[in-house]
Design a protein that fits this description.
The protein is of the alpha/beta class. Helices cover 42% and strands 23% of the residues. The longest helix is centred in the first third of the chain and has 28 residues.
């Protein structure tokens, strides 16, 4: 039995809550995960997990052993990072987390170029809109929307911007809105979140949150959906007007499959940052990715007044 691998599998079983989920994370069969767990229990001579068909529960020893496994695996990871630092070349596994849409549309395609430049770096990418704790979940770097975490180093990236658009077929059928209030007579498809029934605008020369000129427009339509990709597909099919991230619709706007609307009005936008722990920046694999990301999406410096 490979004790190190068995401990790694056991940690994933505890963290994911099931053998099946751990098998997906570890990229092995559920049977193999079960074999590792049984071999570990036989070696230790004590049960780690009480399992039924519906749930699993750690034994008292299993809980203590899980904590010890985290310590041991952490020491191994620290040793590997020390080796990386002495080598000076980017190597090892780089764990990245990023928002779903930006990650799918911008990050994932760019990583092909990164991998060509740094072939010895293996990428472990998690795309989620959850703000996962970097240290707790073992990430080296995160791309985040909104305000930065003060505990981390934050490097500003280009703002995350939105576009209102519709397909040429929809506009031919329903007409083109000329001002935000016209949207009340249109089919507006919305993302399922708390403010989905109201879109906000300002004139281009006014800040979106300024005291003058902000326009809040109630919108309605035939569909509310919790998927940006679903909204995108519905818009392409001519179902209605959408407000979507530029990262998702830029190519369709360029190709004419979608048409930008209300260009004289400013939409909400969110700051985006590249974040990492200060003490990890000395790792060559992280430094190389930070430099790469800033080259691709770094926010241009503000011109001097």
């Amino acid at each position: 039995m490979d004790l190190f691998q068995a401990m790694t599998v056991y940690v994933k079983v505890v963290e994911t809550g099931s053998l099946t989920a751990a098998a997906q994370v570890c990229e092995m069969s559920t049977t193999m995960v079960g074999n590792h767990l049984r071999a570990l229990e036989q070696r230790l001579g004590v049960r780690l997990i009480n399992r039924t068909t519906r749930r699993q529960r750690l034994t008292e020893f299993g809980s203590a052993y899980y904590q010890r496994c985290l310590e041991v695996l952490g020491l191994v990871a620290d040793s590997e990072r020390l080796a990386e630092q002495t080598q000076g070349e980017p190597t090892g596994t780089l764990r990245i987390t990023a928002p779903l849409t930006f990650g799918s549309e911008r990050l994932a395609p760019a990583l092909a170029e990164f991998s060509q430049r740094f072939a010895q770096v293996k990428l472990d990418v998690v795309l989620t809109n959850q703000r996962l704790d970097l240290l707790e979940h073992g990430f080296d770097v995160a791309i985040r929307l909104g305000h930065p975490d003060p505990k981390l180093i934050a490097r500003p990236l280009m703002d995350y911007t939105l576009t209102i658009c519709a397909s040429p077929a929809y506009l031919a059928r329903r007409g083109t809105p000329e001002k935000p209030t016209d949207l009340q007579q249109h089919d507006c498809l919305s993302f399922a979140y708390s403010a989905a029934d109201e879109w906000r605008f300002a004139q281009d020369h006014w800040p979106i949150n300024g005291p003058e000129g902000e326009i809040k427009v109630p919108v309605n339509g035939p569909m509310l959906i919790n998927s940006s990709s679903g909204l995108h597909r519905a818009a392409l099919a001519g179902m209605g007007v959408v407000m979507l991230p530029d990262a998702l619709v830029a190519q369709d706007l360029k190709d004419g499959h979608l048409v930008t609307l209300l260009q004289g009005y400013q939409l909400p936008h969110r700051p985006m940052s590249l974040m990492y722990a200060q003490d990890r920046y000395r790792l060559p694999k992280l430094r190389s990715f930070v430099e790469f990301a800033l080259e691709k999406w770094g926010k241009p410096p503000t011109p001097a007044e």
